Amino acid sequence: MKDGNQDGTQAIRRAAAILKQIAHVSGDAPKNLRTISEAVGLPRSTTHRILKSLTDTGLAAYNADTRRYEVGMLSYELGLAVSDRVLGLAPWTACVDRVAERANVTTYLMRRSGFEAVCIHKAEGRTVIRVIPVEVGQRRYLGVGAGATALLAGLPDATAERVIAAIAPEFDAFESLSADSVRDAMERARRTGFAESRGQAYSSIYGLGRGVKAFSAEPDLAISIAVHAQDVDDARIAAWKRIIDDEIAATQGARHRGDDTPE
């Protein structure tokens, strides 16, 4: 959060960082004044003033019952604005829906955003018991979870190492994550094409993710699934991989033909 500018751009950068922290998923850390100020590296007094402005405008909200800050309704409303970039995501959200339908598991579309991955779409399977470790709009660091690891694996070596070094202190919030375990998961994803998370981000949850080059030369989207670990075996993992590969290939083929409907 160190920024030499003393004009309004500094305040905007700080407010944006605080909003991203409110939306961030990091273990079980509560989104209160103390944890937010520590995460963005600002004094509590400064963080409190910015939070007050964000809540006054509706970009953030304070839940008096939980004593935590949340993303405000104005942020949600602004996110509904339609643009060409948003419309460009439609084939991929439909792809996620098809994966969830065929695999019968909770499926996510994750987008790389700096050092983080943000969930921009979620589709649930038909089972009564559902696994939802991340909600739409929430953010997590690259390397935390299958989709975020798939995105990390798509970066050049030097960039990936810079990311790991920058976010390594945050791994303490997760029981089974470390810089070395993230590197190992990243290398396996590069070898196999799929990232796996076996309880590292959330205990008892298995995650599987694959990066997608949707709008850039490096994977900028990832499609991932999450299931209870006790429901996983090698045959099911192989079937999920085939479904994800099939639907990604169908979506890419339709986009190359200029057709929104995969064959």
TrEMBL record:
User: Which Gene3D superfamilies does the record match to this protein?
Assistant: 3.30.450.40, Winged helix-like DNA-binding domain superfamily/Winged helix DNA-binding domain
Q: Which GO terms describe its molecular function?
A: DNA binding; DNA-binding transcription factor activity
Q: Give the InterPro entries listed for this entry.
A: GAF-like_dom_sf (IPR029016), HTH_MetabolicPath_Reg (IPR050707), Tscrpt_reg_IclR_C (IPR014757), Tscrpt_reg_IclR_N (IPR005471), WH-like_DNA-bd_sf (IPR036388), WH_DNA-bd_sf (IPR036390)
Top-level division of the source organism's lineage: Bacteria
Q: What keyword terms does UniProt attach to this protein? A: DNA-binding, Transcription, Transcription regulation
Q: Which biological process terms from the Gene Ontology are attached to this UniProt entry?
A: negative regulation of DNA-templated transcription
Which residue range or ranges hold the HTH iclR-type domain?
9-73
Protein name per its UniProtKB record: Putative IclR-family regulatory protein
